[in-house]
């Protein structure tokens, strides 16, 4: 079926497709000399965030991505792409290093959400995400975020404060997973299909709402059908974005990003008569 | 400060603080939901809605909370008229909003204001869990952001009392984006040297915890408040086992290093006054 005729529910299924290109695939395809950096320098290492320095067309960049893993063992280690606070604190560390060494940051978002576990709460999941948002909002290097699969909740947004936010055609981005949404609003997780229809989580919806700037087309039937075609399209888009952003001054980059998020939802506010 | 305007402002705030609270007789018997002990409504009100037997803190409304901490007659509300515009045209949201507005007399789940504490001018906000569980809407994010920017521009200390069930589902992704917007505003405020005191009250969860509520220079909480990112039910389902006693309560967060202090409601004002003094503000001796 042609991509433009897909329903939101079908796109959610494609965004979660087990063969959909993941963090490792995208990094291998787009970058050279990727050097993964591990650990939050406080207490642990979370493999659900894959990050480090790499070369993009010969220039150093910092890459930060959600990782789901490629086999059961990795899925479990990565909590199926749901980061713990250690992952978000590693991301903060990498962002601050990118700032120090004046490297652009490229993030790849693919997570159902932050991990809802006991230890994650004990170590301050909320604080870790909040600090990611605060730090990334003020960076003076270019930040380009790409939603590649599932963009679920604050766990996704933590890597999403970019000067430019791109989204693959069949990726989804939402306040919560459709299952979680249905469970909270209707107390019935099985109504997730219905949730998909009202949540406005497709790339086209989000472009219309001003949450994303550009949609990256996918091969017919989804990115996993012809990954190399996707990588070429994505590569060209990232080159274009970075070339444009590299022309801006550090202050303009920070100010532009602030302004971009400052107006988010401004059409969602009205003056009530009192 | 005893001008006729100040008196009128004080009366207005007192009236608003009462709105939505049951009009029971002062002699009516109340039962504490925590210890099941019994006392009169008069005792409960006199103790600022803290159980006189076990210290359980009842949730209180935003106007009431502000009336507890601000100097009398100094409350001046900001952006009172801002409300949600139902951006996703979500089925049924419009009428639910109207109901909530009618019931609480508020347009949104946060009240933002300027006022004085011990004579020191402050920017202050309080969330109200009776309005859509204090969930984060675009209007709420906008009001908080404007308050932060107001505090920055006028070089005022910022004090926020959080209480939230998380995201406003009916506003979807635009609710989520408020996390980035408020966090960015606070980062800018902080880099310019602004003082932000964050007070967490029952419950503070979800997107509010993962944004502005967790970014205080000073982190305070009322006793026994539920504070976390994921809700306890979701965590229990994920890990498939019972959660330990006291998990995600203020005392648990203090123990894990995420709070500076747990402050009972009756001491909140004096604690904040002390913090203002410690940050070089000239607080009146009596605090008025």
Describe this structure in words.
The complex is a heterodimer of chains A (274) and B (288). By secondary structure, chain A is of the alpha/beta class. Chain A has a single domain, classed as 2-enoyl-CoA Hydratase, Chain A, domain 1 (Alpha-Beta Complex). Helix content of chain A is 43%, strand content 19%. Chain A contains twelve helices and nine strands. In chain A, strands 1, 2, 3, 4, 5, 6, 7 and 8 form an eight-stranded mixed beta sheet that branches. The longest helix of chain A is centred in the last third of the chain and has 19 residues, at 227-245. Chain A is globular and about 50 Å long. Chain A starts with 7 loop residues before the first helix and ends with a strand. The mean pLDDT of chain A is 96. Helix content of chain B is 37%, strand content 17%. A seven-stranded mixed beta sheet of chain B has the order 3-5-6-7-8-9-10, sandwiched between helices. Chain B has a two-stranded antiparallel sheet with strand order 1-2. Chain B is globular. Chain B starts with a helix and ends in a 10-residue tail after the last helix. The chains are: A alpha/beta (274), B alpha/beta (288). At the A-B interface, α5, α6, α7, α8 and α12 of A face β4, α5, α6, α7 and α8 of B. β9 of chain A pairs antiparallel with β4 (82-84) of chain B.
């Amino acid at each position: 079926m042609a991509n433009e005729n897909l329903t939101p529910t079908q796109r959610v299924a494609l965004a979660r497709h087990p063969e959909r290109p993941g963090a490792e695939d995208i990094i291998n395809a787009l970058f050279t000399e990727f050097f993964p950096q591990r650990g939050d320098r406080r207490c642990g290492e979370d493999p659900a965030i894959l990050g480090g320095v790499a070369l993009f067309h010969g220039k150093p960049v910092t890459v930060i991505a959600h990782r789901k893993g490629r086999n059961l063992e990795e899925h479990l280690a990565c909590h199926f792409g749901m980061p713990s606070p250690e992952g978000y604190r590693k991301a903060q560390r990498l962002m601050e290093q990118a700032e120090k060494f004046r490297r652009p940051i490229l993030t790849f978002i693919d997570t159902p959400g932050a991990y809802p576990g006991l230890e994650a709460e004990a170590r301050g999941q909320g604080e870790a995400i909040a600090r990611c948002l605060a730090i990334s909002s003020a960076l003076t290097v270019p930040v380009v975020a790409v939603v590649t699969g599932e963009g679920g909740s604050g766990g996704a947004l933590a890597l999403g404060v970019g000067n430019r936010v791109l989204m693959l055609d069949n990726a989804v981005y939402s306040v919560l997973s459709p299952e979680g949404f249905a469970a909270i609003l209707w107390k019935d997780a099985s109504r997730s299909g219905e949730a998909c229809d009202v949540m406005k989580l497709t790339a086209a919806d989000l472009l219309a709402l001003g949450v994303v700037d550009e949609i990256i087309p996918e091969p017919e039937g989804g990115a996993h059908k012809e990954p190399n075609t996707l990588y070429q399209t994505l590569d060209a888009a990232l080159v274009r974005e970075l070339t444009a952003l590299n022309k801006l001054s550090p202050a303009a980059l920070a100010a532009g990003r602030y302004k971009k998020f400052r107006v988010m939802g401004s059409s969602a506010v009205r003056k009530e008569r009192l | 400060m005893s001008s006729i305007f100040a008196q009128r402002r004080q009366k207005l705030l007192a009236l608003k603080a009462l709105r939505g609270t049951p009009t029971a007789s002062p002699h009516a018997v109340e039962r504490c939901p925590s210890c099941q002990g019994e006392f009169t409504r008069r005792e409960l009100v006199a103790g600022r809605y803290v159980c006189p037997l076990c210290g359980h803190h009842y949730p209180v409304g935003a106007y009431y909370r502000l009336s507890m901490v601000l100097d009398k007659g100094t409350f001046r509300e900001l952006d009172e008229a801002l409300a949600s515009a139902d951006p996703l045209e979500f089925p049924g949201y419009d009428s639910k909003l109207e109901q909530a507005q009618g019931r609480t007399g508020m347009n949104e789940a946060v009240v933002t204001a300027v006022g004085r504490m011990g004579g020191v001018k402050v920017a202050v906000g309080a969330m109200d869990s009776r309005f859509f569980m204090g969930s984060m809407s675009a209007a709420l994010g906008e009001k908080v952001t404007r308050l932060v920017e107001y505090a920055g521009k006028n070089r005022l200390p910022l004090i926020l009392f959080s209480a939230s069930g998380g995201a406003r589902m009916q506003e979807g992704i635009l609710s989520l984006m408020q996390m980035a917007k408020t966090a960015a505003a606070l980062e800018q405020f902080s880099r310019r040297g602004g003082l932000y005191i964050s007070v967490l009250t029952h419950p503070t969860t979800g997107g509010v915890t993962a944004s502005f509520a967790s970014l205080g220079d000073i982190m305070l909480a009322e006793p026994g408040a539920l504070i976390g990112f994921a809700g306890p039910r979701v965590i229990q389902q994920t890990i498939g086992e019972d959660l330990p006693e006291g998990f995600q309560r203020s005392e648990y967060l203090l123990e894990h290093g995420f709070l500076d202090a747990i402050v009972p409601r009756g001491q909140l004002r004096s604690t904040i006054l002390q913090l203002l003094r410690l940050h070089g503000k000239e607080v009146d001796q009596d605090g008025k």
